[in-house]
Amino acid sequence: MSDRPAPTTTLDTKFFWDGLAADRLLIQRCSGCAALRHPPRPMCPHCNSLAWQPIEACGRGYVHSFVQPRHPAWPWFEDGYIVALIDLEEGIRLVSNLCGVAPAEVTIGMPVEAFIERFDNGVSLHQFRPRREPAAGTR
Hints:
Radius of gyration: 16 Å
Number of domains: 2
Mean pLDDT: 89
Oligomer: single chain
Order of helices and strands: HEEEEEEEE
């Protein structure tokens, strides 16, 4: 896979990017009120606590919304790539790419699963693809 620009890493987001490098999709959970949050930030928007711990997300979710960007063309994306807003089963949303499906086949509510893609320059990013087997009793 060709090089991909590395994400900007801060003290607040380092755990997330390090987790992806270790094959783990991590999200923040407030130590004060147990609220989950993403994107990572230093203070809980619910109780204002500065204490938190990372938890591993299951990686399953549903397409909340999606778009197929047209311009400008980026050398590290194939034409026709899909950017999706994913509702994780844990109750938070992530922005990511949706892979392994034709744009015309994507639907709102489509069950998806995360995978981690590694690029030649050492960048690891979370991506989503259609879920291979939907969980029982889900949408």
